[in-house]
Amino acid sequence: MDPIHVGRLNHAYGDGELRRTVLRDVSLTVQAGEVVLLTGPSGSGKTTLLTLIGALRGVQDGSCQVLGRELIGAAEGERVALRRRIGFIFQNHNLLGFLTARQNVAMALEIDPVMPEGERMARAGAMLAAVGLAGHEERTPAHLSGGQRQRVSIARALVAGPGLVLADEPTAALDRVSGGEVAHLLRDMAKSRGTPILMVTHDPRILGIADRVVAMEDGRAVAAAAP
Ligand SMILES: Nc1ncnc2c1ncn2[C@@H]1O[C@H](COP(=O)(O)OP(=O)(O)OP(=O)(O)O)[C@@H](O)[C@H]1O
Fold this sequence. Notes:
Layout: E1 4-13, E2 20-30, E3 35-39, H1 46-53, E4 61-66, E5 69-70, H2 76-83, E6 86-90, H3 101-107, H4 117-130, H5 146-158, E7 164-168, H6 176-193, E8 197-200, E9 212-217, E10 220-225
Parallel strand pairs: 3-8, 3-9, 6-7, 7-8
Antiparallel strand pairs: 1-2, 1-4, 4-5, 9-10
Helix pairs in contact: 3-4, 3-5, 4-5, 5-6
Bound molecules: adenosine-5'-triphosphate.
């Protein structure tokens, strides 16, 4: 079973005269271990597609199968359960400012009610070392650079062993060098674990990390090309 299998998906915002279709007949498959980038102009529907696949928004029409679950008609409880199996990475990192890097990463392990606190902290520390942040575990986000904060986000997204990583413009706020480093790190970490990635990006500098690039235009997935 492919981790993502989207078939003839349509999506609209608003009602009546304000109704606006933003996804039209989108089909997309992401296979096990694949890194797929989603590109396209602003407003073409990339983030909407990512939030539907991430079970952050209800599916209206078509089929959206993620990690073996069909999301059309899924109850909120099922969507919550699915979200726990997905690692999310966002442009602005979404780390909690009053927690240390270690605590931010360890939070992603709270979904396991029987894991002792000490083990959560130890696993978070090991994951931070794996993303090159050994020695920075006790810093809060304000005391890390933008690239380091995104490394913490990567550690947080991967620490619980998700079946899938969804990333929305993870390098947009970074300069060229740290953006490239973060993109390659994410690819390498996911590849070594066999975790598929679907990443929305405007950043032409990181297209090289993709196994496949899907372009969106006006709500349609118009092309699938090798980078
Ligand atoms: N919650 C919402 N309510 C109404 N319209 C929305 C909502 N979210 C997005 N839209 C509209 O849907 C269209 C697609 O938005 P979406 O964010 O999916 O595009 P995008 O390709 O990710 O754009 P960007 O690259 O600028 O983030 C846009 O025209 C946007 O204004």
